Amino acid sequence: MKEIKKENLMEKIVSLCKRRGFVFPGSEIYGGLQGFYDFGPLGVEMKNNLKQLWWNWMTREHEDIVGIDGAIITNPKVWEASGHLKSFVDPLVECKKCHHRFKADDISAECPDCGGEITEPKMFNILVPTQLGVVEGEKQNAYLRGEACQTIYLDYKNVLDTTRLKIPFGICQIGKAFRNEVTPGNFLLRQREFEQWDLQWFCHPKEMEKWFEYWKNERMAWYKSIFANPENLGFYKHEKLAHYAKKAFDIEYTASPAVKEMEGIHWRGDWDLSRHAEFSGQDLSYVDLETGEKFIPNIVETSGGVDRTFLFLLLDAYCEEKDRVVLKLYPKIAPYKVAVFPLLANKPELAKLARSIYDNLKINFMTAWDDRGNIGKRYYAQDEIGTPFCVTVDFESLEDKKVTIRERDSMKQERIAIDELAEYIKKQLE
Ligand code: ATP
């Protein structure tokens, strides 16, 4: 396997994403818009697979977790209560010579571009404002949510009232967040519009320590189960903590050429519910029906980035081998599960049989069809997008009703009965 330089790896992934339809620059025909991207035909499949995996793990494997899908725009008071209007700020400095702006904590004394003198830091709020209403002068100011989790706190009482959950329990959500990042860049790693997956775990204050450790380990185990090289994942312990937090850890993709944080495991205590209780005037305490104890639940948060995970998975899966580029993606995440080829496109009997296999498989699996070029080129095209299995229909297939199935990573080929194909692929994917 060729050693790929880290700085070149990002360029290769950006180019592969564009070339094969994973990710396109946003508004490209107008020259783009910094920090915005669109997911193409393969990207949306892969992202949906990833989100589905997370969602099923959260809500099906944990009977004490339910999901919600909250609104992107909330009453603006939410952002006062959450502290974002005051503290969701980044100190920014500007180079007096080239007028480039940098985050103050990204730069030491000198300006990296031209060596010019830099200004004193100014504070910038990174919430994205918007306006509601149609009449000029009467429009109401609001914000696109800066983090997805706030709607979970707002709906915590509604969830309790409409389910049979008791503490400890969790509410999870996957949703968009928007930030006026000072330095959007590094492809999907720092965007202005991105997606987060969050779990807010509500527990008794005395059990915070236990649940914090539990979720820290659970989340790491989950990420390790989907990465080709789990040794590239690690914890980063935060030393500077919010006043309400006792601990904070990031799960990092340590081999990333740029930003490393993928998910934060946060000790939020009773901060969020106490603040929303104070600002809304509503009682958000929990009553234990067995003991009669009344308290504000404490919260462990696991807040991860879908887009960062998506990109880290691609960086991690990318391999250049002797005659091919291969994405060694976890099969459940790969956009296509299987590709079907007739050995020769101009032989109607082969095409007919291959087509019937394709029609049968596509009901259960995302299935690709390819009858262009030769088999070698078709394998190359599927390896490059991470398709775990390729099925070829040849002349023998017409006689023995078997096909050749080739596995992506080992390139091992097997003959398998057409009748058993769907079951075989299903088993392999599990
Ligand atoms: P960073 O310090 O890298 O800006 P953060 O600590 O502000 O991240 P959180 O507010 O904890 O991030 O958000 C949770 C997750 O959302 C992060 O772990 C990351 O995966 C993702 N995320 C945050 N900001 C962005 C962004 N601008 N673009 C893409 N993903 C992001």
Secondary-structure blueprint of this entry?
Blueprint lengths: L5 H15 L2 E3 L11 E3 L1 H20 L4 E3 L9 H5 L2 H4 L1 E6 L6 E3 L18 E4 L2 E5 L7 E5 L5 H13 L6 E10 L14 E11 L4 H19 L6 E5 L10 E6 L7 E9 L1 H10 L5 E2 L6 E2 L2 E8 H12 E4 L2 E4 L10 E5 L5 H14 L5 E3 L5 H10 L4 E5 L1 H6 L1 E6 L5 E5 L3 H9 L1
Parallel strand pairs: 3-9, 19-20, 19-21
Antiparallel strand pairs: 1-2, 4-5, 4-6, 7-8, 9-10, 10-16, 11-12, 12-13, 13-16, 14-15, 17-18, 21-22, 22-23
Notes on the structure:
The protein has 430 residues and is of the alpha+beta class. The protein has 2 domains: 250 residues, 2-Layer Sandwich (BirA Bifunctional Protein, domain 2), CATH 3.30.930.10; 94 residues, Anticodon-binding domain (Rossmann fold, 3-Layer(aba) Sandwich). Helix content is 32%, strand content 27%. It is built from 12 helices and 23 strands. The chain has a 7-stranded mixed β-sheet, with helices on both faces. A 5-stranded mixed β-sheet has the order 20-19-21-22-23, with helices on both faces. A hairpin with a 6-residue loop joins strand 4 and strand 5. The longest helix has 20 residues. It is globular and about 75 Å long. The mean pLDDT is 93. Bound molecules: adenosine-5'-triphosphate (ATP). The site of adenosine-5'-triphosphate (ATP) has 17 residues, from strand 10, strand 13, strand 16 and helix 8.
